[in-house]
Write a structure and sequence with these properties.
By secondary structure, this protein is an alpha/beta fold. It contains 19 helices and 26 strands. The strands form seven sheets. Strands 11-16-15-14-12-13 form a six-stranded mixed β-sheet. The longest helix is centred in the middle third of the chain and has 38 residues. The two termini are 37 Å apart. Bound molecules: alpha-D-glucopyranose (GLC). The site of alpha-D-glucopyranose (GLC) has 7 residues, from loops.
């Protein structure tokens, strides 16, 4: 569509919005800007303005809840496609998949009658212990934004708003409602904001979710600098800002900044900060009604874009959920997301024809992860666990035996009550609104809740220990005379979960002890893991094969089996560093993670591989690492400066092995003699290339001038210093295959 036509349509829409606003009473305006149900805003039937239906989350459309209780409705019509987590998706390094998954999520959200899907989660993975790392993409802003943009665009092509979250720097779960994060300007602009900026300026995201935490003393949902200066003025965002659930604390501050829709976990909807308390201040003349009009305008604009109102209503897409092609896309996503970390002596892929007896050991072979994790929980149509995937793949000629190996305490949740219900359980709190609000906001209570949780984990450890002796013996016995042994361990949503950070980076339930014992009886054991964040692997030198899967959705078991038996050639690469031990991490040294009250991001830009590079600390497996069943050779790097600003790179990649495969090539820049302190190297571009056996492909990538920039906090803008930059072409951030020097004039 021509630019001038777009302008005309926009003008017409703005006029219609103005006309609508003039018709609204104050009560009607206020009804639109706060929750009228746990996942819905107020409807204005009189004027045909519908409620905005929202739903979680990044891995699929969450089950239906009662309007005012955190209790699932429990019908048999809200099972959905359970997608790979964002951490799995980013590990594919294939942005076409981001578009495919975005389309699936958008179509399913629309199919379930939703207007806003509360996804994707794109916070930078600052520390491996963050409980919600599984919901986020990467430790690197370039990789994150490369996935966020197509994902959001594809969601919104289904006439559903993506709600990119959590804006901004929601990097820990400890004290998440109140923690104040002290972040210097340059770190904020170079590390924590770029993916959100791309969501706004490149993807045209329709809504943004304000985060729970504070940044430099002010809650994100009441933060004029964040929501007005940066989001609206600098970036030009004209969509809707939705608070995280309970993220608004003060009426005046939220009213007078660009927070458009207050959602919360309490059912006292008329007592929300932007409900009656705001009306009182307006009627007292302390706050102008213009502040409400501005919010209503943003919400109406989003509703027009979604064809919820206006002349295009009849054209709105219907969407659909649980379509077969959605599940096929999920399988592809799972296949491309898994990461072969180690494969000595080419033990993998296994040859099914040579196996009569297969031993599968480990609780994660049979655990279903879909219903856990917090707001990302999914009522999946089905979930293929690893053991099922292996049996389905092998069929009846292989005897597959299973041993739990290590004990996992079943996480007892009261029948029907959801984890978010705990904070509004009216039996415990007769005066739900105030008492719970105090309880949720009172940090002593929340701290006690955290201590109770840690004590529970300790009790579970003791419980596991007494059960493991027998389980270990059983597993080792089974491993002895099997033709092949596959261990399936890792984490689960007792550890990768919203609202809590992990106490450490170790595998729980004494898995390390079992793995070491297994390696003694079967050094060829295939070690596979399902988890949402890095773990320590003290046995990694003795291990010959390590295959890592994030929570990869309903087809995880099928994809894992297809990779183990070679039907699929693994092509995933790490989108986050796997440290040797937690003590090597930045925040472990400065203690600025997982604290109550406030944290100071002293490490600044040095997050993830930037930290490990600068400190010269070798990780267990580095950012960008991932093996294939074939090998790739890189050659012939040439660079051409274009217009003195952009640098065009060309090089060739050849598959020198005997089978087809895909390789994610990575481009890093390393400033030589930089005039300011800059990370040793930074990812600036990547591309995933599929190659048949023996085939070669010439790859061209262009580094734009902004790829060389850093944020100058004094000048308050991004600048690129003239000078030489080393260009690194790598198979990972450590495995640099080609180098060149680019000179920026
Ligand atoms: C939660 C989460 C957010 C989610 C919302 C609704 O607390 O922080 O990601 O979308 O509330 O469940």
């Amino acid at each position: 569509m021509l630019k001038k036509d777009e302008k005309k349509i926009e003008k017409k829409r703005e006029k219609e919005i103005d006309k609508l606003i003039k018709k609204l009473t104050l009560d009607e305006k206020i009804a639109m800007i706060h929750g009228a149900s746990l996942f819905r805003s107020g409807e204005l039937a009189r004027l045909g303005i519908p409620a905005i239906e929202t739903s979680d989350g990044p891995m699929g459309v969450r089950a239906e809840f009662l309007d005012d209780r955190w209790i699932p409705v429990g019908n048999q019509d809200d099972m959905v496609t359970y997608l790979p987590s964002n951490s799995a998706l980013a590990s594919s390094w294939n942005t076409d998949l981001a578009r495919e998954m975005g389309h699936v999520l958008g179509a399913e959200a629309r199919g379930r009658g939703k207007d806003v899907i509360l996804a994707p989660g794109i916070n930078i993975k600052r520390d491996p212990l963050c409980g919600r790392n599984f919901e986020y993409m990467s430790e690197d802003p370039v990789l994150t934004k490369a996935f966020a943009v197509p994902f959001i665009q594809a969601v919104q092509e289904n006439d559903v708003a993506a709600c990119v979250k959590h804006f901004a720097a929601n990097g820990q779960e400890t004290d998440r409602l109140m923690v104040d994060e002290e972040i210097d300007e340059r770190t904020l602009y170079e590390l924590y904001l770029p993916a959100f900026k791309a969501a706004v300026q490149e993807a045209g995201v329709y809504s943004v979710m304000g985060a729970y935490n504070k940044i430099n003393g002010v809650h994100c949902c009441e933060n004029k600098k964040l929501l007005d200066e940066i989001l609206r003025k600098e970036w030009g965002f004209d969509g809707a800002v939705i608070s995280d659930w309970g993220g608004v604390h003060k009426t005046r501050e939220a009213a007078e900044c660009s927070m458009d829709l207050e959602m919360s976990i309490f059912p006292d909807f008329d007592d929300y900060k932007l409900a009656n308390p705001l009306k009182v201040l307006i009627e007292k003349g302390e706050i102008s009604v213009d502040t409400v009009d501005a919010k209503v305008r943003n919400l109406l604009r989003m509703m027009y874009r979604l064809k919820m109102i206006g002349s295009k209503r009849e054209e709105r897409k219907a969407g659909a959920y649980n379509k077969p092609e959605h599940r096929e896309a999920v399988l592809r996503g799972a296949q491309e997301s898994m990461i072969l970390l180690k494969n000595e002596n080419r033990i993998l892929p296994l040859d099914a024809k040579k196996i009569k007896k297969l031993a599968v050991i480990g609780a994660n072979a049979v655990i279903q992860h879909s219903y856990g994790g917090g707001s990302a929980e999914i009522k999946a149509l089905y979930e293929i666990c690893p053991l099922a995937g292996l049996k389905m793949y092998l069929g009846g000629n292989v005897k597959v035996s299973y041993a739990q190996g290590y004990y996992v305490p079943q996480n007892k949740t009261d029948e029907g009550e959801n984890w978010q219900a705990a904070s509004v359980d009216e039996d415990r709190n007769p005066d739900m609104g105030k008492a719970v609000r105090d309880e949720v906001n009172d940090s002593e209570n929340r701290r006690r809740g955290e201590e109770e949780r840690l004590a529970k984990l300790e009790r579970e450890k003791a419980e596991a220990h007494e059960k493991n002796e027998k389980l270990f013996a059983e597993a080792l016995e089974m491993a002895k005379d099997a033709d092949a042994v596959i261990f399936v361990g890792g984490l689960n949503h007792d550890y990768d979960v919203e609202g809590c950070d992990r106490p450490d980076m170790k595998l729980p339930y004494e898995q390390d002890m079992l793995i070491e014992a297994l390696l003694k009886v079967r050094k060829d054991v295939i070690l596979t893991f399902v988890g949402g964040s890095p773990v320590e692997m003290p046995w990694r030198e003795q291990a010959q094969t390590i295959l890592w899967s994030y929570y990869a959705g309903m087809e995880t078991g099928n994809a894992l089996a297809q990779i183990i038996f070679g039907e699929v050639n693994p092509s995933g690469k790490l989108a986050e560093t796997f440290p040797v031990k937690y003590e090597d991490c930045a925040a472990a040294k400065n203690g600025q993670f997982g604290k109550w009250g406030n944290i100071v991001l002293e490490e600044g830009l040095y997050c993830g591989y930037r930290h490990f590079d600068r400190q010269r600390i070798k990780p267990a497996f580095c950012f960008g690492h991932g093996l294939s069943y074939t090998s790739f050779e890189y050659s012939g790097l040439t660079m051409k400066a274009e217009k003195g600003k952009d640098v065009k790179l060309t090089f060739s990649v050849k598959n020198i092995g005997k089978r087809a495969g895909a390789e994610a090539v990575q481009i890093y820049i390393a400033p030589i003699a930089a005039q300011v302190d800059r990370p040793d190297k930074e990812l600036k571009a990547f591309s995933k290339v599929e190659l048949g056996a023996g085939r070669s492909k010439k790859i061209s990538l262009t580094l734009k001038q902004e790829d060389f920039m850093y944020y100058d906090a004094q000048l308050r803008k991004f600048i690129a210093d003239a000078g030489d930059y080393e260009i690194l072409v790598g198979a990972s951030c450590e495995d640099i295959r080609l180098r060149g020097i680019a000179t920026l004039s």
